[in-house]
Amino acid sequence: MDERIYWLGWQCLLPGAGSRLWSLVRHFGSPRAAWEANVKDLSGAPGIGDEGPEGLARRRSGLDLAQTAAKLESAGISYICHTEPSYPENLLQIFDPPPVIFVRGSIKSTDKLAVAVVGSRKPSPYGLAVAEKLAKDLAAVGVAVVSGMARGIDTAGHKGALAGGGRTIAVLGCGPDVVYPRENHRLVEKIINNGAVLSEFPPGTVPEAWHFPVRNRIISGLARGTVVVEAAERSGALITADFALEQGRDVMAVPGNVVNPLTRGPHRLIKQGARLVEGAGDIIDELGLENIFPLPEAAGHSGLKMSSEEEALYSLLSLDPVALDELIGRSGLLPQKAMAALMYLEIKGLVKQMPGRLYVRTGRGAF
């Protein structure tokens, strides 16, 4: 068996304990070596937890790796290891990414251009309307919307993204096959068809209180920025904002009625320097993504504006695949700038990434 399946085994045994799992694997040098370690060797390893080496070894012996992988496949659930190219790039950059994520639906390379929309589970009608409108407008220009599928603002964000014809990612505090809250059953199916339902907790894991603060680091970690739309001064949404700040991501907030206690959280963030958001344009501006907006008055490129970097790369592409390294070399651009420009071209539908980091024109904007 390859290393991938051993990562799966450890994620099933230690879900939501990313830092412990990383420490354990580093100690032994690989997930397989850790899996094959005896009780004596485990007793001197970090990350074992309160159950002790005997308890961990006992649970490990009861987990059939091949059977676990087969059950996931039959349930339509994929698992993605941090070592794989399909693992979300934004998430890989945080301090403690989950070594393995469980996914229903699909993760795409364009999902790295994402914004988290979070807030109260008991919002005002104003908060619901703003969250849905922001998500809809973001999705309409190709920005994926990330949230936690909780009642209230999270649900409004997912619904808005779907209404805008875009993609949305729901990060759960339970297994990917567990619908919570239950009334979101239909929403889950729509998200799977237009994005992904994602969790670091294995299938069958029921929601527990400690899961939600832990999963909030993934919500902010998947996104370029986090927008808080109504939240009490002590709330999960503000925990997500704190994670975003720790991860070096942008934090934004929507102002509201000063007598509404749910505006105290966003107002506090604004006082501390968060960008005040009145519409999707403020979010796009804060993230420096103005050039992804379609401009109908522009000539050529199917009405889509291009930056000078995008123009340079687009001119090197055709319907024949070109390798990323060749594009970087021929364009003379720094690798980071070239990859960012290619991402924007892909979002605009002008370029498609093929397996092996190859790029082609789609034909939509061909000259």
TrEMBL record:
Top-level taxon of the source organism: Bacteria
A Pfam family that the UniProt record links to this protein: DNA_processg_A
Sequence ranges assigned to domain Smf/DprA SLOG in this UniProt record: 79-287
InterPro entries: DprA, DprA_WH, DrpA_SLOG, WH-like_DNA-bd_sf
Transmembrane segments: none
Domain DprA winged helix stretches: 307-356
Annotated GO biological process: DNA-mediated transformation
Family membership noted in the UniProt record: Belongs to the DprA/Smf family.
Protein name according to UniProt: DNA processing protein DprA
Organism of this sequence: Pelotomaculum propionicicum
